[in-house]
Every structure is written in structure tokens, then in C-alpha cells.
Amino acid sequence: MRRRPPRTRPGRIAASASRHRLPALAAESAFFAALAVFPALLTVVAILRAAGTALGADADVAAAEGMTRLLRVVLTTRGSAAADAAATLLTTSTTGLLTVGTVAALVLLVRALRSVLHALATIAGRPARTWRAAAALALLLLVGGATVTAAAVQDPLLVLDVPAGHLVWRLLRWPVVVLALVAWAVLVLRVGMRLRRGTWRVSLVAAAIAVAGWLTASAVFPLYVSVVARVAGGLGALGGGLILLVWLYLLTLSLYLAGETLRELHDGGAEDTSRTPL
After folding, report:
1. Which end of the chain is more exposed for a tag (fewer CB within 10 A), N or C?
2. Gyration radius of the chain's alpha carbons
3. Residue 30 lies in a domain
4. What is the pTM of this model?
């Protein structure tokens, strides 16, 4: 007996997510992202270290401290060993870090982003992008990540001698970071789903949903892990890696659910994905 198609928008999004096997797609992307995350963080710190004369001598140190704090929040005490190892790597100055480390980060990021673009193309029912698109996004992610990180840990308004710049930047810092995340989500969704020019409004809505999911996962997941760690000691030495992998899984799943929402907002979630007018 054939099931009736869902009538509500959330029902259609859930049905489409099940049809596209979003949990499996998110798990694949999270695995490749977990391989790329530490080389990418090292490369961002190396870029800031190379640009130290323009950004300030302690820009790379502040960035490494900020990244370490983020990892400690996400991994909680169950991943303290992984966080300590990351802190050691991020604060170690190596001559070839900007060259060898960047190559490794690019290779792993391209593979992770190819998985993301393939998943978004599956959602949209369009041909997947080539590795060139993934490579361009990887380069942009490294450079943009270094820029946003420098802005988050430094005070650019003080460098420009803006009156009361420190106070103004304290108010603007995190809104600017959130806007950068929204812009990145819009770019990835549009590139991966091959959207046309007249879809900016729904792209922004979907990107806002993705960023809201990222922020929620980053805020709530550490609390969940800290509660579970008190009653279950089975994570062991692999706890940090497993926690990081699950966190990345939640981030990619949020992005793909935003992609399903975008598709639904654009064309009502047509059953024939090969004719999706994205």
C-alpha cells in the first residue's frame, strides 16, 4: 500500500531527508572533516604567524589559545588528552609548517569538501561539482578562517585609531563572526546545490538555519557529553576523537538539513529530484 506524501512542510523535509539518507551522508562528511580539522587549524595559526608583522606579534598566540579553548569546550574533560595535544601543536613553531602543513590541510580539506558538495548535489538532484570547486572552497576556507580568527582575537578598530574602538569591537566581534558563518553557509549551499541567481532570499534563510544548528550543537553537545561522562566511563583514551567526530557529525547534519529546507522553500520538495529547478 502506497503511503500518502506528507502535507506539511516539516513532514516533506523529513521525508526527503530520509529518502536522501542524510544521516549516512553526514557521517561520511564528518569522518573526512575529522581528518582535516587539525591540519586546518595548524595552517590557520601558521598563516597568522607569517602575517605577524601586520597583525601584531601575538596574533598567532591568541589564535592558538582561542582554538584550544574551543576544543576544550567541545571535547570536555573526556577529551583533555586530545586538547592538550592540540595545544602543543598549535603553540609549536616549525619552519615548514606553512608549506608542508598547508599542503596536508588542503588535500584533506578538498576531500572533506568534495564529500559535502556531493551530499548537497544529492539533495538538490543535480550533478556533483568537480574537485576544482572543492579546492577553491578549501583555499577560501583557510584564508577566510585566518582572517576571521585574526579579527576575533585582535582589535582591528584600535589599529585604525577609531575612537572607543575597543568598546565598539567588543560589541561587534561576535555578530561579525556569525555573519561570516552565514556567508560561508550561503556559499557552500549555493555552490553544492548549483543554485541560480534568483534564490538569494531562500539561501539566506537556509544558511541561517544551518548556522543556528551549528551554534546549538556547539553549545548543547558539550553539556550532554559532560553529563554522560559522569555515568559512563567507557570512552577511554579514544574519548576525545569520538567526541570530536560526533560534534562534526552534528555540524554536517545541520548543513544538510538546511539544504533540504532550501530545496523545500524553493520548489516545494518535488518528488522527481532530477527535475528540480534549482
Report:
1. N
2. 20
3. yes
4. 0.80
